[in-house]
Amino acid sequence: MSRRGQTTADMANSPEQRAQPHPATIALLEKLGSKNNHNCRSCGEGGGN
Known about the structure:
mainly alpha
């Protein structure tokens, strides 16, 4: 978990604006046990700070 409260899956889910999500990486991280808060800043959903 990062200082911003992001998990590794959140970081693969476009942690900054103008970055593209990596769905295959997110699926792998979730399969390995990472929690996904669905915090996608570039998707316009997920309520990034």
